[in-house]
Amino acid sequence: MTIEKPILEVEDLSKYFDVSAPLLRRLVRREGRATLRAVDRVKFSIPKGKTLSLVGESGCGKSTVARLVVGLYEPTTGKVVFDGHDMAAKHSRKEMAGLRRRFQMIFQDPFASLNPRWRVYDIIAEPIRAHGIARDEREISRRVAQNLERVKLSARDGEKFPHEFSGGQRQRISIARALASEPEFLVCDEPTSALDVSVQAQILNLMKDLQRELGLSYLFISHDLAVVYHIADYLGVMYLGRLVEVGPAREIFKNPQHPYTRMLLDAIPDLEMTGRKRIPVGGEVPSPISPPSGCHFHPRCPFANERCQREAPGVTTLSGEIDVRCHAVEEGRLAGEVEKLRMQSSAA
Amino acid sequence: MSNKKPVLEVRNLRVEFPNRRGNLVAVDDVSFTVNEGEVLGVVGESGAGKSMTGSAVIGLLEPPGRIAGGEVLLDGERIDNLSPEAMRRVRGKRIGMVFQDPLTSLNPLYTVGRQLTETIQTHQNVSDSQARKQAIDLLAEVGIPAPEKRIDQYPHQFSGGMRQRVVIALALCVNPRMIIADEPTTALDVSIQAQIIKLLKRLCEDHGAAVMLITHDMGVIAETADRVAVMYAGRIAEIGPVKDVIKNAKHPYTKGLMGSIPVVGHDLERLSQIEGSMPRLTEIPRGCAFNPRCPEVFDRCRVERPDLIDVGTSRAACWLHDPASAKKTEAAE
Fold this sequence. Notes:
CATH superfamily of the domain at 6-102 and 184-255 in chain A: P-loop containing nucleotide triphosphate hydrolases
Number of strands of chain A: 12
Largest sheet of chain B: 8 strands, mixed
CATH class of the domain at 6-102 and 184-255 in chain A: Alpha Beta
Number of helices of chain B: 13
Radius of gyration of chain B: 21 Å
Strand order of the largest sheet of chain B: 6-7-8-3-9-10-12-11
CATH topology of the domain at 6-102 and 184-255 in chain A: Rossmann fold
Structural class of chain A: alpha/beta
CATH topology of the largest domain in chain B: Rossmann fold
CATH architecture of the largest domain in chain B: 3-Layer(aba) Sandwich
Oligomer: heterodimer
Radius of gyration of chain A: 22 Å
Helix content of chain A: 25-40%
Strand order of the largest sheet of chain A: 6-7-8-3-9-10-12-11
Structural class of chain B: alpha/beta
Strand content of chain B: 15-25%
Distance between the termini of chain B: 38 Å
Helix content of chain B: 25-40%
Distance between the termini of chain A: 39 Å
Order of helices and strands of chain B: EEEHEEHEHHHHHEHEHEEHHHEEH
Number of helices of chain A: 13
Low-confidence stretches of chain B: none
Number of strands of chain B: 12
Shape of chain A: globular
């Protein structure tokens, strides 16, 4: 996937966690160190004003990617390039602060991410003060009011405490706080998963409106493919730390390549009850501490062969700017085998 | 409507939470039946009273919550006024339960096998080896590979999806007439969710049990349920065959809810949204509880509370479908 003038580029990004037992126990049991490869050589980029979604099941490393991008974790390998600046390179304090102002994060749980002892006004004023965007108190209060109104709350709500709001309203406050430093890029880690569907719709509409008005770019982490279909321009599918498929969202939804992407799409409940033919889903996500050899997906993959067990697949770039990591796609044998399986399952 | 026997009948159920300032009504005048071999979905947003209805049916309301009115009948026999001891026996023998979090429904200190055989032997007079054989068969039935080996393992050695299968096996131990599943797939990943849904549906068919499936996820309902009840602020807003409710909703709340769900393949710039949020139990508005958020509200909705009205194959609690109010609006125009 190559994009002209991306706002965010992630290259060869990995994060390994040391999950070894304590030293003494390791010596006694003669065990080696254990490493959890939470994120393994991930590469993608996001153009200005667009949304890239990362999807996958629990433990696939999508939230770790979000934390790496905003700098809450230090990457083990690779780099995060924000608007041409390598975030890992040496920057002066002042440069770094300038960069930090330009991206913000929205978290999943609007109950845990707002300080319960602060009034909403102070929660939203904090980034304005911290980044020195305004020093004069009148200007600060004007900006707080403006941000509250942007998220369809009223300026008077600033006097209240977070507990006086419902989950959806709290998530609006989180968004207002994120917008207060006038960022260009927001990392959203499952921002609607804790909300009811009707409230989710309000927040998704709000996020799309804000994107249009302010020209924001989003990295949107989610496990819900229907939400992703609605909000994303680009889609990345992760499985056990690896990005198995990435490209324009519409293309992938229309014509998914990687067997795991197909499986995820087939697992979505059929709300319209069309009775479409689906390949049944089998197996579960293995432990990320001891992932399967070769392609991590091979034990669940109906198209796996001996090579998939042995060798981790490299990136194959297809037409339509889609990058896939799959031997079957690379060898061009996937389409035929999918058709065969469809025939079998509809015959059965 | 099928002519199968109703297993569970709930009539005018009312659940109250007394507190200093009076009574909070969590469930208000809820009636429904679940027939043999049928899955009734109960869907609603948080605070709609769906889990509370489930807890009231199985007699597990947390005090100070109590059933303040109505009847619950299992196979034609009242179970809402039984003593706690008698109710405990009904729960074990005739009602099976599956909850959201499989880790808290299993005892971490006992092997899966011990928990299963204990349940079997409490309700059936069988020897240890017979109980063990039954337990292994159950584990095999719910799709756990190598059940002879897994039976001696502890819950922490199972993955989330496998644990939920064990919980379902526990619920099936005594061949219950009725299974109540409260958000059984909410804690699971989509691919596992699809497997558990399929399993529940198959078991319901094989055992002829009635299932009450409580969830917030319309997708799960569409895949599993035969009929669905949509709850709002403690009452049933709409109840009917799942196809009719999903594709041709009668209540404005159901319509709004369906419109706010994003669907793969639907290219919309914006999702339709219901303004506002569900009222708290302390501030349920007069008349229809949905009237402040309803796009089709008229005078009568603000004063009178609608009961369920027959509309085609479904029933909806909405004045739009009352012939009398239709005449009135025409006259007003």
